[in-house]
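Narrative of accomplishments. A recurring question from our advisory board has been how the design workflow behaves on a single, concrete structure rather than in aggregate. To address it, we present the structure tokens for one chain from the evaluation set, followed by the sequence designed for it. No filtering or post-editing was applied between the two.
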């Protein structure tokens, strides 16, 4: 990717001389208007503070100039996106209002309500998205970000979604280009990240399958080499082929995403914003991934299913295991890393059930026995959820902790590890949450060694896209 700069004139000059890697001339990201928009947004970011406002009146002339350029560029690009006409009109109005009222905390509710990509899930359809927003796993500031995206909606996914795996909110996408907030690990575009005056009902969620696939391929290639793991033929094809990996991740994400809303859920579901021990988030995310795994096993064994669907179902199984154990386990900090813990749990469960082996400094997996073992872990989590419908919150938390510690060893200094008698159970629940160590479940010796070898590879995937895989 071309490094982001806050110098508009430099970016404009680059736009006239530098092709965009992997994309044909004439696509939106190659146009001068896009480069003007991107440069103006980058310049505006330097003037904004965390809440998205531009508080210094001395900066308002420069901010006004950047907004004027953004508006002009959106107007120039709008004919390329007739399906988004209502949104692009509304976002120009929101930018105009924000500028004319003195650059306070931005409110882009009107344009957010107009942007409805889930209504146009057509393979290859493109969108221009410009909002003041934070980017998950990227910037925590609500800065003006601009991103060009393309929908991924292959026919077999459309058929799955129209059948047993309906999910009207799900929009799989790939990057065309983006501003600095997405030159990070962020792989989602969610409406809840946009600066608005009131929270609307959210009707869509978009996931960058190309970034997920690209970092998966890079990480698994390196990890398999380091651990001397022989990849099965289909898994090797998955790692070698970006398009195949993207479509596999779309299938995985379709089933995962809908699972958050389905099942015997206690009234502590992951999607409700509340403070609770991070290992509960670990179990919810892992539950959804293991549901995708289980359903993929079922589809792969269904001889009436189309060959393409069955092939991708087999590939989803490899993707879930390899992404979880190789990338999730050692990506990010050790501060309440719930995805990391989920990966550690899956690896340890497979090892302790004798389908994954680390012997003679070589990793091996008994693939024929893997489905039953992995599905059993999913069933264990689902049983926890089913029982918790009849349990008080704190009892559910204790049972969830026991489930994890049955397989993953907690830190010896943990108060939670000493059992219920060591915990203050009669106070407010936040006290129990505070008692959980930032790194309640440290990396095993295997993962400590793997982390040291993989760290440069993991770090290199920040900002990656399908064209750079």
């Amino acid at each position: 990717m071309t490094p982001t700069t806050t110098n508009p004139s430099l970016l404009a000059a680059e736009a006239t001389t530098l092709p965009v890697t992997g994309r044909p001339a004439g696509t939106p990201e190659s146009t001068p208007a896009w480069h003007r928009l991107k440069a103006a947004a980058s310049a505006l970011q330097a003037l904004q503070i965390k809440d998205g406002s531009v508080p210094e009146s001395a900066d308002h002339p420069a901010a006004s100039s950047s907004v004027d350029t953004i508006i002009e560029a959106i107007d120039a690009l709008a004919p390329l996106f007739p399906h988004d006409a209502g949104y692009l009109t509304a976002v120009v109005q929101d930018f105009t209002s924000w500028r004319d009222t003195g650059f306070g905390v931005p409110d882009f509710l009107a344009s957010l309500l107009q942007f409805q990509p889930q209504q146009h899930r057509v393979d290859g359809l493109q969108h221009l998205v410009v909002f003041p927003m934070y980017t998950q796993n990227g910037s925590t500031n609500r800065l003006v970000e601009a991103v060009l995206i393309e929908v991924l909606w292959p026919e077999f996914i459309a058929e799955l979604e129209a059948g047993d795996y309906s999910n009207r909110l799900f929009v799989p996408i790939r990057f065309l280009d983006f501003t600095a907030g997405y030159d990070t690990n962020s792989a989602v575009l969610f409406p809840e990240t946009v600066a608005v005056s009131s929270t609307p009902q959210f009707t869509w969620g978009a996931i960058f399958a190309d970034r997920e696939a690209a970092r998966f391929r890079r990480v698994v290639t390196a990890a398999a080499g380091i651990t001397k793991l022989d990849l099965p033929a289909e898994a090797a094809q998955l790692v070698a082929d970006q398009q195949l990996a993207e479509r596999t991740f779309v299938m995985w994400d379709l089933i995962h995403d809908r699972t958050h809303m389905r099942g015997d859920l206690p009234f502590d579901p992951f999607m409700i914003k509340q403070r609770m021990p991070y290992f509960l988030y670990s179990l919810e995310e892992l539950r959804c991934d293991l549901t995708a795994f289980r359903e993929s096993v079922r589809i792969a064994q269904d001889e009436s299913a189309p060959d393409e669907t069955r092939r991708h179902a087999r590939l989803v199984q490899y993707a879930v295991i390899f992404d979880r154990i190789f990338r999730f386990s050692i990506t990010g900090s050790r501060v309440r890393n719930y995805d990391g813990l989920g990966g550690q749990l899956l690896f340890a469960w497979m090892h302790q059930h004798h389908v994954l082996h680390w012997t003679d400094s070589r990793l091996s997996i008994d693939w024929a026995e893997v489905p039953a073992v992995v599905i059993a872990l999913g069933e264990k989590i689902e049983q926890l959820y089913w029982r918790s419908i009849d349990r008080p919150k704190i009892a559910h938390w204790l049972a969830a902790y026991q489930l994890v510690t049955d397989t993953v060893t907690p830190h010896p200094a943990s108060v939670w590890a000493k059992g219920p008698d060591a915990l203050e159970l009669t106070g407010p629940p936040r006290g129990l949450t505070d008692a959980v160590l930032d790194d309640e479940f440290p990396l095993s010796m295997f993962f400590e060694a793997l982390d040291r070898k993989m760290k440069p590879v993991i770090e290199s995937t920040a900002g990656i896209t399908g064209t750079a895989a």
